C-alpha cells in the first residue's frame, strides 16, 4: 500500500506539558481501559478466525470427507472394468454383462445377455434440441424426430432418448461429442433359438430380472454366478420333438399339444415342448395360450394312462396278481355308468394283462375297489400326485385332487378320471414303474455328477464304435448291451415299488405296444413300451364332451433296459380318414411317439437293435392268460371282494347319503376343472 | 492511490480520510458474492421451481444497492450516523414488532415483512442501529451525569430481546446479545460483571436448548454425530472434501447441486468445492482484516462513542461471518446465518452494507483531531500504522 495520508498528520515526537483535570484523568483512564479491552476483542476474533481456518484446512486438505459416488458421478465417470474377478467362463460370457448365459447340455446357447446402452439427455445442458435430434437421427434411424425435439425441450434434467442401442451406435453418438448426451450401460437378454423351449426359458423384465420360466427360478443364480447355467435340455432332441409334435398337431388339427422326453433314471428333462409356442425374444407379444406351458402348468385328466398306476398299486400292495381276473361289466353308481366303449366287445372277465393291453375301465375300477380308497389315496400321495410336480419352473401347477375320497372317487381315479395332473407328473409316475421302482425328481438341470459324466463319454465313443463294428460283425451285440448297462446311472429317490413289480410292469407296458392299444407306438428295434390314455374333455358346463378328447401316450424305450420316457399329448385332436374317425390316443399320440423315438434314439446314443429283436421280445413277453399257481385261489368270478354290487347291497342306506355328497364333490371338481378347460377351449 | 491533498472536493476529502483498506475489503467480499452466486444459486433456483437466473439477477441488484449504501453511509458525519441509527433503529424496532402481527411465516418463524420486490427482515437492520445507539447511550452517561444511559441501554436491549424471542430468532438474539456484551466489556464493565454476563448467556443458551425444540434438535445433532439426520452438514463437508486445495474450478462443483440452501447458509461450502482451500482462506483473511484491523485502529481513537459503537458494529459483522463459516464446517451447531456480502439475501446484504458504511463513517479520520498522548504500551500501538 502506498503512503498513508495519516503520515502527514503524525503528532510531533516531542513531549508537552499539559494540564489535566480529574475529569480528564478519569476519561483518559477510561480510554486506556477501552483500548486494552479492544485488544482483547481483537485477540478473540483472531482466535476464532484461526480456528475456522484450521477446521477449513482439515475439511479440505488434511482429512477431507470424500463425496459420495452419486454426488460426483458426472464428474468422475466410472471406468468400466473388464472382468475384474476373472470370472469369465466359457465362450458365452461377455464383459460388462451381469446375467449369466443359459446353455443346453451340449453347450448350445439358449439365452445370453448382450451389452447395450441406454442413451439419455439432460435437456438443461443441450444447446439446440433440434440440431441434437437431427444429429441423433443419423445414427438412430427409427427416432421420432418431432417427439424427441419436444422432449429435449422440456424443462427437465433427465430424458431417455433411446433404449438398448448397440455398442456401435453408442460409439457413433459418443463421437459426435454432443454436450448433455449421456449413456447408461445395460444389457439385453437374447434367445438365439427363438421358439426353442420358449416356455421353459421364460423371460426377463426391463430391469433384467427373471419374471417367468428358468429365468425367474434361477434369477439369483444367474445374477450372482457368471458361469453359464447348463440345462438338461438337448436342443437337438427338443427340435425333433417340436417338429414331430407340430406335424401331429396340424395333421389332427389339435388345439394344443405337448411332449416330454425325460431320462427315467436321472429325471433329467431332455426335451419339453408345448404348442402353440412363441419366439422367446417376443415374450411381450405372445398370447397367453402360447405362454402356457402345457407340460407343467396344464392340468389334464390322465385317462387310461393311470391304469398303470392302479395296476402298480394292486401288485405292490399284494392285492392282485398277474393271473387274477376282473369284471368288465359296466358298473352303475348313482347317475354314472362306468363302462367301456361299445365297440370293444370285451369278455366279461379279463386277466390283468388283458386289462392293461385293452384298457378296460370297469376292470380298472374293480382293481381300485379291491385295493380300497384309503390305500389308493396314500399311494397317490406317495407317488407325488397330490403336490405340484417338483421342477425348476415357477409355473408348476398344483394338481386338482378330489377332496373326499369316496367309493366313486376310488373307481373313477382307478382309470384316470376325477383327478387332473400336469403331464410331467404322469411321466414321473410312469418312470417310477419302469426304472426299478424309484420315484425320481424331474429336473431341468444337467446332472452335475462328473463321475458319471466321464463313463458316459466313454460309453458314447464305445457305443459308436460298437455300432460301427456291429454292421460288419453281428455277434458283438452282447458286448454293447454290457457296456451300455454299465453306464446307466442309478435312480435316486424314495423307493415306491419293488424291483420285481417294476419288472412285471415293464412287461405289461411292452404288451400294450406289442398286442394292445398302443401298437402304433412301436418303433422297430427300440422295444417301445407304454400306455395309451384318452380322456374326454370337460366342457364349459361341467359335463364330459363326447368326441372331444385329450389323447396321450406315455412311451418308454428301450423297454428291455428303460432309459427314456417319451410323452405326447394332443388336445382335442380331430378324426382324419387315416384314423377311420377315431380320436383316441392309439391313432394319433402313439404314432407320434413312434416317430419321435425313431428320430431321437440315435441322438441319445441308443441304436435300434433289430438283430436281437426276437430274443429280446421273447424275454419281455408275458402271456395274456397267465397260469394260476397251484394252491392259489385267483380273483375272478365268485371271488371279487371289491364288487360294488356286494357293497351296494350292504351299504344301500349309507350310500344314499354319500351319493349326494359325491355328486356335490364331483360338481365342485368339475367347476374347478372348468376354468382349466375353458382356458384350453377358448381358442 | 492516495488522492492529492490539493483535491479539496468533498469526494477528495472523503477518499483521503476514509479507511480505504476496509472499503476495498468490503468490495472484495461483494465481488466474491457475485461470483459465488453464479455458482451456487442456479441449482437452488431450479429446485424451488424458479428461473435459474432469478437469484443471480436479484443479487446483482442487492449487491449494487449494498455497494452504494457502503459508500453513501461512509460519507456521513458521526452525528449523522447517530441520527440515522436513532431514526432507523426506532423504525426497525417498530417493524420488528410488526413482524409478530403481519410477518410472513417461513419455516416456523415470523421474521419477514413482505415488500414489493423483496421481503425485508427488519431485525437485520436493527443490529447495526442498536450497536450505534448503545455506543451513544453508554458514552452519554459519562458526559451528562444524570443521563441514565446504562439503564436505557439495558431497557432497549430487553425490548429487542423480547421481540426476537417471540419471532423466534435465536441466532439474531445471540448475535445482538454478544454485541451488547462486547460493547459493555469494551466500555469497561467490571470483569466480575462481565463474568456474570457470560454466565447469564450460557444460562440463556441452556434454557433455549430446553425451551425451543428446533434448537435442541440442532444441538443434539451436533453433539452426537452418529445419530439423526446429518445430510446437510455431511453434504457441506463432502463439498469441501471434493474441492481440496485448489478446488474443482468455476462451475465444476457437483456436490453443491445437492446442498440445501447452497446460495445462502452454505455458500461457503460452494466456495470450498469450486475454489478450494486457498480462496476460502482468502475469504477468512478478508473478514479477519476488516474486523481485527478496525478493532486495532480503534485503539488510536479517543472518542468513546466511536470506539464502543464501532466495536459493536464490527463484532456483529465478524460474529455473523464466524457463525456462518463455523456452522458450515461443523464447528458449531447449524445456525441459519448469512455470510456477509457473499450469501444471497437483500436484507442481509443491505444491513451488512449499512454496518460497514457506519464503521467507515465513524472511523473516518476527522481533520483537526489531536489526540492526547501517554507513555503506556498503548502509545506504541497508537503509533502502529496498519496498512
UniProtKB/TrEMBL annotation, chain A:
Keywords: Carboxypeptidase, Hydrolase, Membrane, Protease, Transmembrane, Transmembrane helix. Residues 469-495, 628-683 are annotated as: Disordered. Residues 97-205 form the Penicillin-binding protein dimerisation domain. Residues 664-675 have a biased composition (Low complexity). It comes from Acetobacter farinalis. Residues 258-578 form the Penicillin-binding protein transpeptidase domain. The chain crosses the membrane at residues 38-62. Its main location: membrane. It is found in: Membrane. Residues 642-663 have a biased composition (Basic and acidic residues). Residues 474-487 have a biased composition (Polar residues). This is Penicillin-binding protein 2.
UniProtKB/TrEMBL annotation, chain B:
It comes from the Bacteria. The keyword Lyase does not apply. It is found in: Membrane. Pfam families: FTSW_RODA_SPOVE. Its main location: membrane. It is a multi-pass membrane protein. This is Probable peptidoglycan glycosyltransferase FtsW.
